[in-house]
Each structure stands twice: as C-alpha cells, then as structure tokens.
C-alpha cells in the first residue's frame, strides 16, 4: 500500500477473487454469531442507504463506486471467518509494509525535495495510514510477549516498524493524524495496562512523549513547521483571510451547516448545493473560497449528511459505531491475541473517526478500501482467536 502505485488494490482484488471462488463452490457455512451478522448488516446498509440517497437526489452515479466496496467486503469477511489464517502472516505484512514507507518518504523529502512525503497516496492519507500502522506495531509489541523464544525477534521487528511508521507520519505532515493520537493512546493504555506492567507502560509512554517533544523542538522540524502553519492559518482566518488550509475548511463547514438547516433530512443535489453556496457568498455569509470545494467538504460527516441526507449520515455513523462497539467489548479479553486484535480493530475505527473530521476519508479508493479490509481482516482473526481460546481444555482447578 505504501510503496507501490495503487498497491492497496492488489491484495483487495486477490481477497475478493478468492472469496468469490470459495463461495461458488458452495462450502458449508457455519452459523454466524450475532456480532458477525450485525457487521454484515452494517456493510450492506452502507451500500444500500447512501446509494439510494445518491440516486434519489440526482447526484453523480460515480459516487456509487465507493459504496459498492462495502458490499464486496461481505464475501471477504465470510471467507476469512471460515478460513484459518496464520497471525504471523498479518504481523509480517504489517511490518514489511510500514518499513517500506520510510525509505520512500526519505527519498521524496531529501532527493525530490518535496515539502511533504506522500508515497503513492494522497498526502494526508499517507501520514494517516502511517500512524495507524505505527499503532499496529505498538500493539504487536504487547503480543510478542506471548511468543516464547521468538519474542525478541518479533519485538525488534515491531520496533523497526513503529520507528518507520512514526517517521513517515511526521514527514507526511497531516495535522489530522495529531487529532487521533490522544484517544488512540488512551485506548492503548486501557487495553494493555495491568497491575504487573503499568510501570513499564508508563515509562514507555514518557519516553515517547519526550521523543515527540524533542522532535518538535528540533530546528526545522516538520512538526514545528506544521504547527506554526496552523497558528498562522487561524490568525489569518480571524482577520477574515480564508484562503488557507484551515480557513477554507472553516468556511466550508460553516456553509454546509447553514445549508443543512434548510434541508436537514433530505440532503442536497450537488448542483443545487453549489447554487446555494453562491447565494451565501452573495449575501456575505461565507467567502468565495467555498466555491472551490463545493463537492469536497473536507469532513466525512458533513459530506455524507449534505449529499446523502440524514439516512446517509446515520449509515456512516453505523459503519464506525458498530465495529467500534464490538471491538471495544473485547479490549479486556483474557486472551492476549484476541485483545491485541481487538485493539487494532478499535484503533482503526477510532482513528478513522478522528481523521474524518478534517478529511473525506471514505471518498477516496485507498481510504475506503483500507478501512473496510482492515476491519474485516482484524474482525475475522479476532474471532478465530476467540474460538481457539474457547476450544482449549479447561485448566484443572
């Protein structure tokens, strides 16, 4: 995903093809548990509801391309729920993937002299995904302790992955990533802190905080530059100069909220919405910068609400809320593997929920495909870990 053009699509295509071949053979399907059925229902709803609203409002049928991916994730989920997967394959892929991001990011910054690294993705998504993979590697460090004699090699691999991911996230420069860091850290501490390891985790978090503070204070640091740019954008916005990254977002959101007061349930056709924005500009309620972004509001929640109505917004909230709820219920599971996978799943959803406040994460191919595949893969592997734990003989009293 990081180091090849359209790299995220290859694994997705292989998984989909494998699932369709598997279903065509009419394999015996085990009874799905209620959470599995709910997840399938949410994926189906995210296909049906926004698609129906898009067509009803007369918006571009090309938008359906994003929603149909939720439908295609269902056979992949069924395949993975019925097919044992070696967890070492997932961890190895995560480490290799994020490790490949760092040299590419270094090349773009120091050889091509780009201001921000983007890999072969959108600049914002490159930074956001790097942060998610860093989170996976941090969770993997906790899982590595269950691997006996192989624990130290796994720890070394995860530390390498976390370092590469953090580097890529920093030089990618997405401030939306920063918003996701505090809640994700709290989620991590809730999941993995015990009476036996709280001191080690506290020391590790302190070390990470000092490292980030040092990187921020370093002269010419990308973190410091992006912070100063944010302060400058907000200062300019207060003086009514809105043609900046943050200022334009504020205006887009103000215009969207104003128009939603007129159609809070039905939503808007894009052409009519653009005309409404022109009316707001003429009345001086928003600045002309909003007309440059009438079809991309840089907020997934407002985007869904405006162009698929309240039903589309509810479908989006369900796509985030239900997986987060079911992953979250397993964050303190007694089995370390299940707990680690639950954290990775919940962390993915929580991160996306934060990223979506300043970016339309699910309206780019890489954004929606990574989210859907990460959720179904982590869900299936977590369920497999739970089943293995349940099938083990009870220990004698």
Low-pLDDT ranges: none
What string gives the helices and strands in order?
Answer: HHHHHHHHHHHHHH
Please give the number of β-strands: 0
Structural class: mainly alpha
Subcellular location: Membrane
GO molecular function, one term: ligase activity
Keywords: Ligase, Membrane, Transmembrane, Transmembrane helix
GO cellular component, one term: membrane
Describe this structure in words.
The chain is 73% helix and 0% strand. It has 397 residues and is mainly α. The protein has two domains: 7-25 and 36-194 and 299-388, no CATH class; 240-293. α5 (123-144) runs antiparallel to α13 (336-355). The termini are far apart. The mean pLDDT is 91.
Q: What topology emerges from the helices and strands here?
A:
Layout: H1 7-24, H2 34-57, H3 64-82, H4 87-110, H5 123-144, H6 151-172, H7 175-192, H8 198-217, H9 222-238, H10 245-260, H11 270-282, H12 300-328, H13 336-355, H14 365-391
Helix pairs in contact: 1-3, 2-3, 2-12, 3-14, 4-5, 4-6, 5-6, 5-7, 5-13, 7-13, 12-13, 13-14
Task: Kindly summarize this structure in a few lines.
This protein has 397 residues and is mainly alpha-helical.
